[in-house]
Specification:
With about 350 residues, this protein is of the alpha/beta class. The chain has 2 domains: about 5-115 and about 310-330, Rossmann fold (3-Layer(aba) Sandwich), CATH 3.40.50.720; about 120-300, NAD(P)-binding Rossmann-like Domain (Rossmann fold), CATH 3.40.50.720. The chain has 12 helices and 13 strands. The protein has an 8-stranded mixed β-sheet with strand order 8-9-7-6-10-11-12-13, with helices on both faces. A 5-stranded parallel β-sheet has the order 2-1-3-4-5. Strand 6, helix 8 and strand 7 form a beta-alpha-beta unit. Helix 2 packs antiparallel against helix 3 (about 50-65). It is globular and about 70 Å long. The mean pLDDT is about 95.
Length: about 350
């Protein structure tokens, strides 16, 4: 093996930089974090075609021209043309739909992602939302804030026997299923690759093909969206689907904002088509200040941060190290993305 140049646009903890350097004496690490930031900020301030922006791009090009591996979350534009020797992109996040452009998807560049790095943390947030709704946590918090000692019977309900429907049985969906089974919930799920119904698959009582989404919506007390953001899943949940969930059901979206028709969701929450929603993702992010979602009492929300688990940079850097070792040996990489389906 000749010199292997790896450019990184995302911070790598010192421990893992040393670990990478120890893998091979032919490995060369190139830090482009500040250069890429400069390219972005200069283009934003002076315009993409300004002399200042061209100069900033040239600095990045000088570094990445011969790189074979790129490690980052934020990618320079036209990366395949600017780094013609690039063979592998280790993406820092899970979903590649936001920052990985069509030029990369249509190129021979291999992509690996961060699948499973934060899956458990996201799944635990889903369970937190389920518990908050079942135990009426918002009402309890409101009473505390108003210093009200309520003596009314509280009408909380147990999770045992309730049905959670997971739309997209991947890494996150699998963890949601496992955690919900601990509460003795019934778990059903759709899986893109399923061609027929299957019973008792791991922690899932029934796996359904994607075409049986209506069945899942009708039977679930909680519908959890964990599908990737692809053309196939865009506007998957609209007015019709929300009405199938029904006035006693809840929608939890940790997938992408594009999966749900947001105008229909707001109506559903205001008019009682569904009981409530747990939302970590939105059609427009950051969520506009004038969005009605902010003021809806039956929404529990986060600002697209359920995957922000402590130690994330260490976990993804560890994956990079393991994948570099595999890459050098010619072995199959971990978390290989199927670019045709988008995950």
């Amino acid at each position: 093996m000749g010199e292997l140049k790896i450019a990184y646009g995302h911070s790598i903890p010192e421990e893992y930089l040393k670990r990478l350097e120890a893998i091979s004496s032919d490995l060369r690490l190139l830090n482009v974090i500040d250069l890429v930031k400069e390219e972005y900020s200069t283009a934003k301030e002076h315009g993409a075609d300004s002399p200042e922006a061209r100069a900033a791009r040239a600095k990045v090009d000088d570094v990445i021209r011969d790189v074979e591996v790129y490690y980052s979350a934020t990618l320079p534009g036209n990366l395949p043309k600017r780094a013609p020797n690039l063979k592998w992109l280790q993406y820092v996040w899970d979903g590649i739909d936001i920052d990985v452009g069509k030029d990369i998807l249509e190129s021979p560049i291999v992509i690996t992602n961060a699948r499973q790095i934060a899956a458990l943390n996201i799944a635990e947030w889903v369970v937190m939302v389920i518990l908050m709704f079942s135990k009426r946590a918002n009402d309890l918090l409101a009473e505390r804030n108003d210093r009200v000692w309520s003596t009314e019977f509280y009408d909380q309900w147990e999770l045992k026997g309730k049905t959670v429907g997971v739309v997209g049985l991947g890494a996150i969906g699998g963890d949601v299923a496992r955690l919900c089974k601990a509460f003795e919930m019934r778990v059903i799920a759709t899986r893109r690759s399923a061609t027929h119904r299957q019973s008792n698959v791991g922690d899932v009582d029934e796996v359904l093909p994607a075409s049986d989404l209506d069945v899942l919506l009708k039977e679930s007390d909680f519908v959890v969206l964990t599908v990737p953001g692809t053309p196939e899943t865009t506007k998957l949940i609209g007015e019709r689907e929300l009405k199938l969930i029904g006035p006693s059901g809840y929608l939890i979206n940790v997938a992408r904002g594009s999966v749900v028709v947001e105008t229909a969701l707001v109506r559903a929450l205001k008019e009682g088509w569904i009981a409530g929603a747990g939302l970590d993702v939105f059609e427009v992010e950051p969520l506009p200040k004038d969005s009605e979602i902010w003021g809806l009492h039956n929404v529990i929300m986060a600002s697209h941060k359920t995957g922000d688990v402590m130690g994330y940079d260490d976990r993804i850097a560890d994956l990079l190290c393991r994948n570099v070792e595999r890459y050098i040996k010619g072995e199959e990489l971990i978390n290989l993305v199927n670019k045709k389906v988008g995950y």
